[in-house]
Design brief:
It is a single chain. The protein is α+β, with helices and mostly antiparallel strands and 241 residues long. The chain has helices at 44-56, 74-79, 131-134, 155-159, 184-192, 194-214, 220-236, and strands spanning 18-26, 32-40, 63-64, 82-83, 105-107, 115-119, 122-126, 165-166, 174-175, 178-180. The protein has a domain at 15-180. Strands 5-10-8 form a three-stranded antiparallel β-sheet. Strands 7-6-9 form a three-stranded antiparallel β-sheet. Strands 1-2 form a two-stranded antiparallel ribbon. Helix 5 (184-192) packs antiparallel against helix 6 (194-214) and helix 6 (194-214) runs antiparallel to helix 7 (220-236). The chain is globular and about 55 Å long.
């Protein structure tokens, strides 16, 4: 990965904390394929569960290839409509480390779920070939074919496995392809305490699922928004646990 410009000595997470998860998925023609995705060790079991659920729900994915195959070039990976996770890079347009640099964020089907940024009077879409077809976020449109592979149908699967933040809810930029686990304080805890990281992550998920169970009479979209925000806020102000 160092030779492929995916990780460096300055990266916030060492190679020893990374794990490759081998997954099975359906492509857009319905054929079963295999792929691999690299994430932090503490969340690897949950990432395996996410892709197992996507497969069971027959949600198509174009490809799942570690970004080393694109020499760390996020835009090249997007243009190939590739799903990936770990990449020791800063946030788009910034200098602080992205959640991808910790193996705690996943970008899925970038063509169907583009990154949208507003620059002055201009809208920038990445990958650019997504612009005409996927900025209208309705999978069903009258008189037009149903569009699968859009992130909206995956939000619950990701959230139920700890990836509570979906970039599709953001205002600027809007990152439809992007799912991440949550607040920086939680990321720091998972990074700093390897022996406890998996247990901490499971507690985070349990708190979210407990909130959802208590909110079962609330419309699911509203409950998800409330519970995600509530749990993320709780773990943003990290007490010693």
């Amino acid at each position: 990965m160092k030779k492929a410009n995916v990780i460096s000595e300055q990266a916030p997470l060492p190679c020893s904390r990374l794990k490759q998860v081998d997954v099975t998925f359906r492509d857009f023609s319905g054929k079963t394929q295999t792929g691999a995705i690299i994430v932090m060790d503490a969340v690897a079991h949950r990432v395996e569960m996410i892709f197992s659920a996507l497969y069971q729900h027959q949600i198509p994915i174009q490809s799942i290839t570690p970004i080393r195959e694109f020499f760390g070039d996020d835009e090249a990976s997007m243009r190939a409509n590739n799903t990936s996770a770990f990449n020791a890079r800063p946030i788009t347009g910034g200098s602080s480390w992205s959640k991808h640099a910790y193996g705690l964020a996943i970008d899925i089907n970038p063509l169907q779920n583009p990154f949208v940024e507003f620059q002055a009077s201009q809208i920038v879409v990445k990958p650019p070939q997504a612009a005409k077809h996927y900025l209208n976020r309705y999978s069903y449109r009258l008189g037009k074919p149903f569009r699968t592979g859009m992130a909206e149908e995956m939000v619950d699967i990701f959230a139920n496995n700890g990836f509570l933040i979906w970039g599709g809810y953001w205002n600027d930029p809007i990152d439809y392809q992007h799912f991440e686990i949550g607040p920086r304080a939680l990321v720091n805890r998972l990074t700093a305490e390897p022996s406890k990281a998996r247990g901490v992550f499971e507690k985070y998920i349990a708190d979210y699922l407990s909130c959802m169970q208590l909110s079962e009479r609330t419309p699911r979209e509203n409950a998800r928004a409330y519970c995600s925000a509530s749990v993320v806020e709780k773990y943003s102000h990290w007490p010693t646990q």
